[in-house]
Amino acid sequence: MSSQRVLLRQGAVITMDDDLGDFATADVLVEDGVVADVAPDLGDVDAEIIDARGMIVMPGLVDTHRHTWQAALRGIAADWTLGQYMTGLHLGLSALFRPEDTYAGNLLGAVEALDSGITTMLDWSHNVNTPEHSDAAVQGLFESGLRAVFAHGGGADMYQVPSTVPHDDDVRRVRDRYFSSNDQLCTMAMALRGPQFATLDVTESDLRRARELGLPVTLHVGDGEWGRSRPVTRMKERGLLGPDITYVHCNTLADDELQDIADSGGSVSIAPDIEMQMGHGWPATGRLMGVGVRPSLSIDTCVSNSGHMFGTMQMCLATQRAIDNEQPGASDRPAVTLGSRDVLSFATLDGARACGLDRKVGSLSRGKQADIVLLRADTLSLAPLNNPIGQVVYAAHPGLVDTVLVAGRVVKSGGKLHGDIAERALRLAEESRDSLFDRTRHHDNLTDARAGGTWQPAPLVTTEL
Ligand SMILES: [Zn+2]
């Protein structure tokens, strides 16, 4: 069988591979879905040629935590507190989701991510109330063409706080049916409630289940006031910490808990945009770096913030700079503490590491899967290109994403996703949104629910947790 080759010709290449470095202009050769070579000029190659002149060529972005099922409800929580999000959505509208709503949300969220240059996304799926909901969530991811990690998070009946209900046993069926191999585009994890939502006994049994099934774990800790209950310390006392856990948020964890995460080899996902606006606390970026943990970045939920990684990178860098600049003597510092290259690494290589995929993706290293994004740099917003990484982090936006490859397959070119998947995702999401709000009329605690930005749910009182 002859190999399939694609040559990305003469772009400004950011590899995120320390050994390869970056190139003002270079060729990137993709062969049978993997990066075969990166060099200033590969000469004449028998390959499909993609003209990358005027473009930045970089690794696909990695989002390590997104509640994708909520995508069709985007915007409704723009002016909600975390407590209102809990009652209005997470423990509210969630109950109305049919499998087709989960499918529509996951398809829209995954396609939106892909369109904006996110080629790997961990779907933190915590509203799969029935096996059919899980099937629908997985189907949405599979059809999108995205590289995804489906993190099975169970359904609403697991989220009564503090829960004494073990994780839904359907997780085993989902793994056996869809994820029998780790060597496929979509893989699986378990999204656990952890000690803030469930008892420590349940947390322990859930973790044992995940480890028995061979699935990595992602869980929320340290988000807002209820994160001050020393969740990591309590897990440590039971001997539960490990390198297979990604800790999401971490804002209000104590310094020694961050150290415990570092010592146990765990990874972290921060969502600076959501954390700032919903009241989780200051992003823990600098404190994590201080104990040797390089965080990954996540979108979290599109019901209040945007779904693209450019905004998240900007927020990450700006908030840490603000925190640093408040320190005594800051004005005399010789240099910043957090650079744009660090932040782009959080959004690529460190994200891949948090997903357990760093041997496959996260950089344009020879032999890795060809998950590649081309950004238009010959534009009013990016040209002239004086500092490619700084400009990607601080000035780029989804409208510049010209071409996207996943495992060497071109899924977007000329600024447009291939096929009719975008149109289908949008149509299904609108139908789902209309149906969801229509059905709130039959639920006493959701009678005020409506789109338009004026619905203000009664908040959950966090001191009760
Ligand atoms: Zn979350």
Give the SSE layout.
Blueprint: E1 5-13, E2 23-31, E3 34-39, E4 48-51, E5 55-59, E6 61-66, H1 82-90, H2 99-115, E7 118-125, H3 131-144, E8 147-152, H4 170-178, E9 187-192, H5 200-213, E10 217-221, H6 231-237, E11 245-249, H7 255-263, E12 267-270, H8 272-278, H9 285-290, E13 296-297, H10 309-325, H11 340-346, H12 349-354, E14 372-376, H13 388-395, E15 401-406, E16 409-413, E17 416-417, H14 421-439
Parallel strand pairs: 1-4, 1-5, 6-7, 7-8, 8-9, 9-10, 10-11, 11-12, 12-13
Antiparallel strand pairs: 1-2, 2-3, 5-14, 14-15, 15-16, 16-17
The protein binds zinc ion.
Zinc ion is lined by residues 65, 67, 124, 220, 248, 300.
Descriptive account of the structure:
The protein has 465 residues and is α/β, with parallel strands linked by helices. The chain has 14 helices and 17 strands. It has helices spanning 82-90, 99-115, 131-144, 170-178, 200-213, 231-237, 255-263, 272-278, 285-290, 309-325, 340-346, 349-354, 388-395, 421-439, and strands at 5-13, 23-31, 34-39, 48-51, 55-59, 61-66, 118-125, 147-152, 187-192, 217-221, 245-249, 267-270, 296-297, 372-376, 401-406, 409-413, 416-417. The strands form 2 sheets. Strands 1, 2, 3, 4, 5, 14, 15, 16 and 17 form a 9-stranded mixed sheet that branches. The chain has an 8-stranded parallel sheet with strand order 6-7-8-9-10-11-12-13. Strand 11, helix 7 (255-263) and strand 12 form a beta-alpha-beta unit. Helix 10 (309-325) crosses helix 13 (388-395). It starts with a strand and ends in a 26-residue tail after the last helix. The relative contact order is 0.17. The mean pLDDT is 95. The site of zinc ion has 6 residues, from loops.
